[in-house]
Every structure is written in C-alpha cells, then in structure tokens.
Amino acid sequence: MKRLFIGLISISILTNCYNKKESALTPLTGVSSKIEDERSMRDDWSKDNTVVVHTISDPDNLHPTNGNSAPRSEIMLLTQRSVLYTDYENQSMIPGLVKKSPIALEDGLTYIYELKTGPKWDDGTPFTIDDILFTAKAYMCPLVNDPAVKTYWKNLKDIEIDGSNPSLFKVIMKTKNIQNAFWFGSFGVLQRKFHDPNNILANYSISQFSDTSFKTTGDTILMNWANEFNSDKYGRDPKFLNGLGMYRVEKWESGQFITLIKKKDHWTENSIDYHEHSYPDKIIFKINKDDNSQQLEFKNQNFDVSTNISMSSFLALNENEMFKKNYSSYLSPTFNYTYIGMNQLPQSMNRKQLFTDKETRRAIALSVPIDKITKLIYGQYSDQCHQMISNVSPLKKEFNSSLKPLDVDLKAANKLLAEANWKDSDNDGILDKVIDGDKINFEADLNYLNTSPDWRDMALLISEELKKIGIKINPVPMELKLFIEKAKSHDFDMMLGSWAGGSFSEDFTQLWHTNNWTNHGSNYCGFGNSKSDALIDSIRLEINLPRRDSLSRLFQTIIYEDQPYVFLYTSMRRNIIHRRFANRMIFADRPGTLINPLRLLSINPVITLQNGIAP
C-alpha cells in the first residue's frame, strides 16, 4: 500500500538501529537511527519550545477520511490516533488505542481487540466501541468521498461487540489475508458524537455498506449526512477539525503555515510510547518552496526540521559552518520511488491517444536517461539511489531480481515508435500519427509539482531528452491540490510524481486495480484488466509468504512488460534537525522523523529517549 503507514510483515534488508553523533553526508543505512543528544544548549539557540517544520506545500486537506497527500498524513500523525501504531524502529505494529495486539482465532478471519480505558475526546467524552463502529461505517459508506482507501475496507465483514464487556470487540474479515491482523493500524478513529450527532449511521449495517448492490438513490437522510460529512469545512476549518491526537489545529493560513497546539491534560500525557509524546508546546508547519529563501531561513535558524528540502539546498547548507554547528543533517534511505506516469485511457477526458499502446510507452522508457536524472538531483551521491525497474523497490525481499533495468537505447525506441505508426510525415521534427481519421502530433503535457526546483529540473531534462526522438513535451507546473485533482480525474497526458512506500509486503490494490481507476482512486494511468485484477486479488489474499512473494514477482513482470510508468529511482530523504532538541530519530519509513518526541534541551537535558523508552 502506498499511503502512509499500512504495515504487515517486517523484513531485515536494512540494518538495525544505531546512534550517530556527528552530522555527516554519508547516507544512513538503518531502518532507524538515533542522533546522539547535544550536551548543552548554546547561548544563541532559541529556548522557545516550538518546532518549526519546513514543508513545501499545503496538504490537500485535513479531512479524517477524504484525503491522500504526504503533508496531510504527517499532520494527521499528530492530530489523530489509530487502533494500532506502526513501530518505526522495529518495522512492526504495536497496540495504539487497544490494550494489546489483537488475538487471532483459528479461523484466520476473526480478531479480538480490547479498547484502552483512558483515551478521551476533546469534549471529555470517553472513546468507546461506538466510535469504532462509526469509523468503519464512515469509511465504508458508498457516499463518502474516500476512493483512495475505501478499497481496503471491502474485506471487512462485521464488527461484533462483546455483550459482557463493552471494551471487547471482534473484527471479522471476509477472507483470509496477510494484512488482517494489522489492518486496523492505518486509519484514524473518528468521534461518532462529533461527526454524526443524530446517529444516522446506526440505521445502517457494515454488511449493507459492503454489499455492492446496496442502493443509496432516494435515501435523502443518508445523502444529507454524507454531503455534510464530505463538506470541505471538515478538512480545512480548525473549528471542525477533531481527533484523539495530542495536538489540535489552531490556525491554517493557506500557502503560508499550519499551527498545531498541544492539548492540555491530554490522555497521553504520561505515556512512555514515543508515538504519544507531546514535548513541543507548539508545532508550526511553515510552507516555503523557494530554494534561496529556504537556505536563508535555515541560516537564520528560523526552521527546526525538514525532510522536504531540495538536494541542491541540502548540499549548499552543508557547506556552511554555522549551519553545521546548529543542525544535524543526514541522507537516509526510503522505500519511496519517483516515476513518470502515462495516461493509457485518455478517452475519458478527451485527451489525445498518445500512450494507449505498450510499444510507445516502452519507447519512452528507453529514451529517459535515469542516470542523468539521478545525477542531476543527487550529484556525487547519486550512486546511493537504486534504479526502479518495476513497481517494487529493489530494497525489498519480494523484488523481482530477474528483471533487468532498461538502458537508454534511442535506436530501439525509434523502432518501437515506428511499429506503433508514429512518423514525422511533415518533417517538422515532431512525430505524428493518424488516429480515428485525424492527424495528431506527438505533443504531450507533463504535469509536475511546483513545490521544489528538483521537479522542475527533472521535467526540463525529460523534455530535452524526448525531443531527440521527435516527441514534444510541455512541462506544466502545478500546486499539489490541482496536481492530485488532475491525476484522479485522468485529465493529463504525463505526470511526474512519487509514491511513498514502506518495508512491508506490497498490496497492489490501491495503485493498480482497475476499480481504482473507475472510482477515481490512485490508479491514475488506467492500468489493468480482469486478469491483472485477479492476480492482485490473489496476492492480497495469499497468507503464505513465499507463495505471496512469488505471485508478487509475477505481477512485477506484468507491470515491467506493460510499462504504465517510466520507473525512475528510489529517493534518499534529506533530513535536517536542529541540535537544540533531544530525542531525534530518523526512519526509513515515512514521515522520516517524528516531531512529537522532540524535547527541548533546556527543559530537561536528562530525560531523553534511550533504546526507544522514556524513563
């Protein structure tokens, strides 16, 4: 799964945790690294217990169910809580809003949970099983606008409450699945009283919402509830942003900043779990997309944390001695990958049919110089980036090592384009083709994010290289929200993007199942057919790990041959954390570092995390 933190099975590809004392540009190699605390505060370091986090864009929204962007996910870690948490240090799942990990019954379908008794909502109302039931129904309701995640709820059959103990409940799944034991770890829990004060969803069952034949037409009561729930105010207005997390949104100035305030007397106050610490009094996500301005902000110590800075700025800052005295900075591995997506089904938005055949898509892949791109972005550290060959990171156990990377071969690319009937009939330097009686030029828009010069530089390089085979590329910069809207509605020719991954076994449903093209989910390019869908379903339901990995490798081969993306590289994260904070940790999984455990050295230089446990 490519959202934030669905996790299933840990692997040992990366090394164990270790401490790092001095900042270095030598890339880290562990799934988790702890940065050794400074001994004392410097006189010129701020004593303000506020963490200013550099980010490069607004989230698409902060709605509890209806969103799918990286900034949103990072903020939701602070404002929401889930039944299970991802243990970033050990690449596993641990209890969150429950007392212990679920008990699995022998049928492989039923899991028993017991809620913690301490969690409370902001209005003082205890967190109960009522909220669990409402959360499930809200995600599953066919009228709720959450296509990116709804598919993961289709395997839920029912939730049963224990009659003798209202804190005990059973989660019953429809089919055996390797994800079942940890499935509840990816979704923030919603307060029924806040989002459904009239208890509308109590009139509907989980089985009704999971039934594809369930009709909502004419159900004005459900439609009115869903229209209200989907309202943009629940994703943008701080008065309507609600969650069990340690922080609340105080203010959101679009394009400038989002301020979070620590809640007083929160139920996590005495927790020893680093997921629930809340040492900063205030966290400000400050948006800055300009390279020069970012560097100036760091030199003036106006930022405390960044995992989003461009590589060029990262390297420039590490040449500055004052910066190095104030900050620790590290390159670290990720499971994220960067790609060029090509619209295989453009007819739905009346766009030109440029990439409807795999010969043309393979020709594009043979013309994009991945080595040039990684050197452009990472310079002397480009050899630390792994080239993506198909849709699974080479760092992962299930990676299909029999697939060979595509080298640049313009001769082979031209041959494939000719086979697909592309030719320069008018000798203007641009290929053309007659489709449905009309001659069209091979001219394509390439959408990319305007959040970093790295994206711009890549788009320009791609445009220059494809010109060599007679293809005109128009780079089109976009804000994150518009970029996602265009992708979901399939209103694009090409898109330059990246997906965040984790170390756990892949579930290909979100990105590659045809259902997630038709429902405007994350299968942006329109890949797939009934056979690939059946294979995705088989992988999702296979609980035998070796067989699952074998099926995964088969699916990677299908993707490799169909070429829906030009797969570029796995990225390195650029981590910067101010030395005035203790408890600094860096993870391979997103978000890369956690803000809530950071403790200002001047508050108490003794109390810091050791081996993941706070004394």
How is this structure best described in words?
This protein has three domains: about 20-55 and about 240-335 and about 575-600, Periplasmic binding protein-like II (D-Maltodextrin-Binding Protein, domain 2, 3-Layer(aba) Sandwich), CATH 3.40.190; about 80-225, Dipeptide-binding Protein, Domain 1 (Dipeptide-binding Protein, domain 1), CATH 3.90.76; about 335-570, Roll (Dipeptide-binding Protein, domain 3), CATH 3.10.105. Helices cover about 25% and strands about 20% of the residues. The chain has a ten-stranded mixed beta sheet, sandwiched between helices. The protein has a four-stranded antiparallel beta sheet with strand order 6-7-9-8. α14 (about 455-465) links the parallel β17 and β18 (about 470-480). The longest helix has 18 residues, at about 545-560. The radius of gyration is 24 Å and the shape is globular. Mean pLDDT is about 90; it is low at about 1-25 and about 605-615.
Q: Tell me the name of the CATH homologous superfamily of the largest domain.
A: Dipeptide-binding Protein, Domain 3
Q: Largest sheet, described in full? A: 10 strands, mixed
Unreliable spans are 1-24, 605-615
Named CATH architecture of the largest domain = Roll
The percentage helix is: 25-40%
Widest beta sheet: strand line-up = 10-11-12-3-13-20-14-19-17-18
Mean pLDDT: 89
CATH class of the largest domain: Alpha Beta
The number of distinct helices, counting runs of at least 4 residues, comes to 19
Structural class: alpha+beta
Judging from the principal axes of the Cα atoms, what is the shape?
globular
Strand content: 15-25%
CATH topology assignment of the largest domain: Dipeptide-binding Protein, domain 3
**Terminal residue distance:** 35 Å
